[in-house]
Amino acid sequence: MQIPSRIQSQLPRLVALRHELHAHPELAFEEHRTSDLVARVLDTAGIEVHRGLAGTGVVGVLRAGNSPRAIGLRADMDALPIEEENTFAHRSRHPGRMHACGHDGHTAMLLAAAEHLAATRAFEGTVYFIFQPAEEGEGGARAMIEDGLFTRFPMDAVFGLHNWPGLPVGQFAVHMGPVMAGADQFDITLRGHGAHAAMPQQARDPVLAGAALVQALQALISRECDPLDAAVLSVTRFHAGEAYNVIPAQAVLGGTVRTLRAEVQARLEAAIERVASGIAQAHGMQAQVDYRRGYPATINSRREAAFCQEVAAQVVGQAQVQTDLPPSMGAEDFAYMLQEKPGCYVWLGNGPGEGGCTLHNPRYDFNDAALPIGAAYWVRLVERWLAG
Questions:
Q1: Is the CA virtual torsion 196, 200, 202, 205 positive or negative?
Q2: Which of 27, 192, 206, 290 has a Cα-to-Cα distance from 88 of 20 to 30 A?
Q3: Which domains does the chain have, with CATH numbers?
Q4: What is the DSSP string of 92-146?
Q5: Chain-centre distance of CA 67, in angstroms?
């Protein structure tokens, strides 16, 4: 494993930094303390600091030589609204908030890489260190883009990284194409006619219609989608009525749709509208569908993915780079950056996902053994991409 000696020697400090971030988690667009820490570390390293993109976003700029080439490296900073159940010393000190997805580790690794690159400057060109707020469902990547990320900081490509529980520490996974799914949300309101539960013939029962609709929606995956296309449709909410003896006048269903291709996404959206309307009419009522497009699919560009496979292999060895893992049906707003620029999003092994140490779990903790590996990957990527 090729870890620069400077990063290895700084490991105790890097671990302490990660623990500091973990102990003080901040939710989407509220990462004020975190962005202060990031800006302070970058400034101390002699890196040009820009703040305010998407409110709490930070961009560090590091130049070496005269080459016009430039790349961006992105780390997310926000935490989740989860009550932490861990008891170690660096557990969250803020009730109802915790780093349950490893963004503390992502931030620490990119800061370590930035410090190393600022000290060595063994490259020709410009590196933009992108510390992004609000990845967890709030679209901080899109907000940074709308605030001028790629116009103020023009780059040829952009790269991201996420820890992956279940993948052994010391391994990477790199996908040649889709890596994370697009994620949409829907709400369906069924409006019928309420009545006494003992006199159902006087009602147009939205609960009965809703039950039929839940069943019908599940068939869309098997009958609207090609079996070779990955897609998920999950109904996760069903709200109707308050009393045992009253058939309510309205029911509201909600859920999520996950797809890897835009064509499948559009087909399922239209099918949900059609099926909801048909079920409602069959039960003598009306349906209103509110379908909201969320994060698009995260799709790596092939050239950059091949490059990242080579870089990862130089850090951990070819045998430790997985290239055949299936994509995840989870979602990631780095997708917005990959819609604007070529690039690649890789998974970094976080070790066994046992004992609750899975993403978005109240017992999750980033594996500190992965810190020098991720930092070394960032360093090697820059030195290879911006080779003199």
A1: positive
A2: 27
A3: 5-180+297-385 (3.40.630.10), 182-292 (3.30.70.360)
A4: -SSTT-B--SSHHHHHHHHHHHHHHHHHH--SSEEEEEEEE---SSS-HHHHHHH
A5: 32
- What are 173-228's pLDDT values in tens digits? 999 999 999 999 999 999 999 999 999 999 999 999 999 999 999 999 999 898 88
C-alpha dihedral, 13 to 140 to 304 to 297, nearest 10°: 130
Distance in angstroms (rounded) separating the CA atoms of residues 74 and 159? 6
Which residues, at least 6 apart from 189, have a Cβ–Cβ distance to it below 8 Å? 250, 251, 252, 287, 288, 290
Q: How far is residue 137's CA from residue 119's CA, in Å, rounded to a whole number?
A: 35
Largest separation between any pair of C-alpha atoms in the chain:
82
* AA identity, residue 136: E
Q: Which helix (H) or strand (E) holds 222?
A: helix 206-224
Length of the chain: 388
Could you tell me which residues come within 8 angstroms of residue 180 by beta carbon, excluding any fewer than 6 positions away? 297, 298, 327, 328, 329, 330, 331, 332, 334, 335, 345
